[in-house]
Amino acid sequence: MSELSSKIHLQDSVFEKTVLDNGVRILTEDLPHLKSVSLCIWVLSGSRIEEDSQSGISHFLEHMLFKGTLNRDTLQIAKEIDSVGGSFNACTSKESTSFYCRILSDDLPLGADVLTDMYLNSVFPEEEIEREKHVVCQEIRQLEDSPEDFVNELFNMRFWRGDSFGRPVIGSIDNILSFDRDTIINFKADNYRPSETIICAAGNLDHKKLVGHNR
């Protein structure tokens, strides 16, 4: 497969798309009047694709990508973005998982490096897995103690009865406690594929430079 690129001009914005040889799609909107960039790695892997025994693993994997890579430990991941005044976070839905940061334009290479390092090189330390299980289980308990949020989950479970779309994204305590390192690694290998990955950025940026960073 050869790399494909396209560009669209619309009013004051320039939209560009490049599909890398491995299938990763890179989409950007150049907004030259801004001083910052929002960057997101979007994976088409959410709770809807999970088996019953895997319920909650997409969300748990999202947490674990912040827990150390081959190049950075947990503190370094947080510190490098914070040190330049940036912010970053992640989100899991029924359809997808995303990891994103907002950073000054001059610091975009750093933001891209941190996010791609998390995506490609996470190591999933055993001690962090066990620690994060308690964090996620506490989130589940908090959800169940929040009537205005929990009623939505109950509605989905009844409306989509028997379908993975009806299960809570966050999963169940029993499932979370059952996950081990191999289960997490195998789920990531099966679902975090280049063809299911989209890199999006909007702000004051150079599309070609961002593409070059992700080749």
What is the SS-derived class? alpha+beta
Number of helices: 8
Shape descriptor reads globular
CATH-assigned homologous superfamily: Metalloenzyme, LuxS/M16 peptidase-like
Poorly predicted regions are none
Order of helices and strands: EEEEHHEEHHHHHEH
Rg value: 18 Å
CATH architecture field? 2-Layer Sandwich
Beta-strand content: 15-25%
Number of domains: 1
Q: Alpha-carbon distance between the termini?
A: 14 Å
Under CATH, the topology is which? Cytochrome Bc1 Complex, Chain A, domain 1
CATH class: Alpha Beta
Please count the beta strands (DSSP E, at least 2 residues each). 7
Helix content: 40-55%
Task: Present the secondary structure layout.
Layout: E1 4-10, E2 13-19, E3 25-30, E4 36-43, H1 57-64, H2 74-82, E5 87-92, E6 97-104, H3 108-121, H4 126-144, H5 147-159, H6 173-178, H7 181-191, E7 197-203, H8 207-213
Write a structural description:
The model has no long low-confidence stretch (mean pLDDT 92). 27% of the residues are buried. It is globular, with a radius of gyration of 18 Å. Helices cover 40% and strands 23% of the residues. A seven-stranded mixed sheet has the order 1-2-3-7-4-6-5, covered by helices on one side. Strand 1 and strand 2 form a beta hairpin. The chain contains eight helices and seven strands. The protein has a single domain, classed as Metalloenzyme, LuxS/M16 peptidase-like (Cytochrome Bc1 Complex, Chain A, domain 1), CATH 3.30.830. It is α+β, with helices and mostly antiparallel strands and 215 residues long.
